Amino acid sequence: MLEKTKFDQVFESLSRTIAGRTSRRGFIGKVGTALAGVALVPLLPVDRRGRVSRSAHAASGTREGWKPQDNDPSQCDYWRHCSIDGNICDCCGGSLTNCPPGTKLSPSSWVASCYNPGDKQSYLIAYRDCCGKNVCGRCGCLNTEGELPVYRPEFANDIIWCFGAEDDAMTYHCTISPIVGKA
Amino acid sequence: MLEKTKFDQVFESLSRTIAGRTSRRGFIGKVGTALAGVALVPLLPVDRRGRVSRSAHAASGTREGWKPQDNDPSQCDYWRHCSIDGNICDCCGGSLTNCPPGTKLSPSSWVASCYNPGDKQSYLIAYRDCCGKNVCGRCGCLNTEGELPVYRPEFANDIIWCFGAEDDAMTYHCTISPIVGKA
Amino acid sequence: MTHVHSTPELLAKYRAALLGGVASLSLLVAGAAYAQQGPSGAEVPKHLDEKATSQLEDDPQILSASTPDSRRIYITDPAHFAVATQTFTIDGNEGKVLSITDGGFLANPFAATDGSYFGLASTVYSRVSHGKRDDYIEVYDAKTHDVIADIDIPESRFLVGTYPWMTTVTPDNKSLLFYQFTPSPQVGLVDIENKKFVRMLDVPDCYHIFPTSNDTFFMHCRNGSMAKITFDKDGKVDVKQTEAFHSESEYLINTPAFSMKAGQIAWPTYEGKIFMIDVSSGEAKFGKHFDVFSDEEKADNWRTGGWLPVAYHRNSGQVYLLADQRAKWTHKYSSQFVFVHDAKTGKRIRKIELGRDIDSIAVSQDDKPQLYALSTGEKTLYILDAETGKELHKVPELGHGPQVIVAHDN
Amino acid sequence: MTHVHSTPELLAKYRAALLGGVASLSLLVAGAAYAQQGPSGAEVPKHLDEKATSQLEDDPQILSASTPDSRRIYITDPAHFAVATQTFTIDGNEGKVLSITDGGFLANPFAATDGSYFGLASTVYSRVSHGKRDDYIEVYDAKTHDVIADIDIPESRFLVGTYPWMTTVTPDNKSLLFYQFTPSPQVGLVDIENKKFVRMLDVPDCYHIFPTSNDTFFMHCRNGSMAKITFDKDGKVDVKQTEAFHSESEYLINTPAFSMKAGQIAWPTYEGKIFMIDVSSGEAKFGKHFDVFSDEEKADNWRTGGWLPVAYHRNSGQVYLLADQRAKWTHKYSSQFVFVHDAKTGKRIRKIELGRDIDSIAVSQDDKPQLYALSTGEKTLYILDAETGKELHKVPELGHGPQVIVAHDN
């Protein structure tokens, strides 16, 4: 899991220092509307060192740690959900990778590297929130594999990741777990 | 419990027919603001025949029926709560007869006749809602002793009885159970 | 109030103008120009989005729901009088939640008879539970669940535990009728097709709205009669009231079953007598009523109980009543049994033991009907075979206290 | 939007004006006059209120809460990212809920250091969860709980799981500071005293707000440093950044403890190292840090865990850490133990076994402190003697998922 992938080429140089500079911009035009609907998804700066998820733990949601399964995407311990915080869209009218009817799909995401017990590979998951509705409430799920504090926001799952969604939708409904690629 | 009281003199002639006439008024000035804060509380037309609550049943909230106690006003089976639907203000920062800080006291009410197992008398209770906040959520309570359908609204507890509260507050927070007098 | 300003002082002036003050045109225009700037809180963070973009292996989309059939239902969760409520779109065939729609305080669901849209009559406040009240009708496409109309109405919706038939579409699906309790009884007429509120119609001291044609509906009145209300384009209302059809001590529940397509109302009392009101001719006929319970069952304390304790299956003419053995005055508590009777003969066809506490029932209108049994306490919908009572699906986690089931094919 | 209109067409015009269209003065004035009429939905029903009024034997009033002391706390329930949230005012002495205050999406509580007021930075939408966003600061009297200020702010609050110290008053209680994440990091300055938003202040890529004087606050930055931010009346911002005080692999939790009165920040890592940051001099000093767990305990997998896992008692200089034996990367799950250490020496003073899963802790600042232990799952606050761990009170039914404890005497 330490071999180089195409993602390493993208993210390799990124570390916590990249955004440490002072940002003195004023209010600026919205980037979100320009991004919505395009195929290129803005992934945030990623530094995955040391945070590839492990495979040998008990059920999720407990102090026992993470033990993923690979057969039921509606369950919190499905492997792709290793760093989700919220509700699984599959239970809310969506699916593992699609948003429920009537929601707005966020183009921005936080990321985690999750271990698939099926093929014993790790994948980079870009969690994308489905927005513009009150919280779904079904299949609540908190996993924190490789979850970093808010000062490393690209890995932080407390944040409402609805940035750039259509209609400026910023309310949280549920989260999908699409794959970026192998980690 | 069938002897005449002062309330009988007020309510005796009231029956379902009183408001059966056609009401063809247009939009009118607000009565509520005129009523708020006055000592005279508008009680709604009351016909108590046959709906004096009984004393010999099991715990409230079940098909077993109503069995009131007279020692803990924060419990749903406290005798005065015999026809409450909502939350008991005593658990929300209020008390048996006072609204919580920050709410608005409704001058209007639905009524029920409740049996006090302490003195073995029945009393007319004018349930008044404390309004202007989201539902309290603590000490939820549904009792339906003598509770009548919506076409007899003065006895109907599904209605938000915030009519006339200050600031037109119409959201439901909790309910107090003041006594009108002996029934 | 608007999401685009950064000068609250200016905004305060516009608000004052809106609420009764005075504002100059130039101020308004200046504000409008300003409004194009300022943050939305929804931009992709500039300090984070520059370094990396990448294509996903997956291609996320927003789904569309299946085309509604007679097993499409909507479950509304008033969340015990909460200011935020949810309505779950459910496909009975699969026992699957298709989408969730948000409503405000005591939002009242409705659905087009052809299934093309559904909606909510709703009330919100500018500060969650206080501040300015805003009543509105929001209409959603039944497949995409996108908002297709947002119609402002007067702030006078009747705020009451959610009853079906206190808000309803007309048979042609072009209009909506909603009830007003105060300051005086009125029914609001909303033009769904043209997305505008039309007017309030004065009505007697009556409740519920049962449309029989596009300009006529029936109501049930305090004195026990039915009122036939006819209105014309100018707001003129004609009222024709029947004699009382039930006695003062026969308490009719708040949530009768109504088949708009058949023109039949099935209306139980607390004690299990069912009044069948036939409005199919355009007049109210009270020929049929029957007792669900035998004298022996009555002696054993069998009574109606639940939030929506009655359902009507149109083609078979069967009435379903949720009931149990219970004390008097427990008419809103859950029950564990459903009694199925023939509405014409009043005879019992079968009795279904649910095996759990159920608060609301409904049936699908197809020929092999599903029985929907909703448990408010468990927050779970059980979908049963209406013939056998066999459980077909179970749909859990339906909010905080789901109570209401609405179908379009009624 | 307004509760007083009956002509939605007119209103639509005002809205268009507000949002960027054009409206004439006469229209506005006409609308204002019209606005005095129409129903509010809040009138006493005319068909019911005429027949009977009567004096009650009881004389209902609206209560006022007791004067806050150091055991007055506020518990906020974000209800798992819901659009409607609650903040419970609790008197620790009695273990009693004094009042409940409503907030919107991810409302962030704050309290005046003298206890005179508390408030929420909040976000609402015109249609429950969609439509127009409105961010605002609402301030409440700590006794009456009446709204004493409602201040409009730009729609750019950082919407994130509720962290204390992402929104805070200044030491003089006259101003409020709130965090903006996007489009670029800024801190909003609100004049509480004069009830108006002042301006946004540009800040580096840093997080949290720890005020040390009325024009100075510290933040913690992405690169592991602290930034000292000083601002003047004209919005000029001066930034002074320290060297990084922790390594990249030492992950500091999102919810440190800060005593504004003592100028001390206690900031644990996932692994139980605690950084003490002394800002009492007006500069950030990093002299003290210590490991809560011995090497043996570390080997036994003792780690920090919870939502608010750290508390600081000002006079005694004691740090409380919520921890348990746990796998790596379980830093947000509940714990059953509290470790109490002397912040100066780093030495352990005692260890409290809670006997249940607790997510958030706080201590009162009096000399016989109470330990507040909040269980999100049980929705219950346990009030314990901070010395002995003995349970003094239990306060259940605190919403849907209470997570946050705020005290004014910090």
UniProtKB/TrEMBL annotation, chains A, B:
The lineage of its organism: Bacteria, Pseudomonadati, Pseudomonadota, Alphaproteobacteria, Hyphomicrobiales. Disulfide bonds join C76-C141, C82-C114, C89-C174, C91-C139, C92-C136, C99-C130, C131-C162. It is an enzyme of class 1 (oxidoreductase). It is found in: Periplasm. The gene is mauA. This is Methylamine dehydrogenase (amicyanin). There is a cross-link at W110-W161 (Tryptophan tryptophylquinone (Trp-Trp)). Its main location: periplasm. It holds the Pfam family Me-amine-dh_L. It comes from Candidatus Filomicrobium marinum. Its EC number is 1.4.9.1.
From TrEMBL, chains C, D:
Residues 1-35 form the signal peptide. Its EC number is 1.4.9.1. It comes from the Bacteria. SUPFAM superfamilies: YVTN repeat-like/Quinoprotein amine dehydrogenase. Its main location: periplasm. Keywords: Electron transport, Oxidoreductase, Periplasm, Signal, Transport. InterPro entries: Host-pathogen_enzymatic-act (IPR051200), MeN_DH_Hvc (IPR013476), Metamine_DH_Hvc (IPR009451), Quino_amine_DH_bsu (IPR011044), WD40/YVTN_repeat-like_dom_sf (IPR015943). It is found in: Periplasm. Belongs to the aromatic amine dehydrogenase heavy chain family. Tetramer of two light and two heavy chains. This is Methylamine dehydrogenase heavy chain.
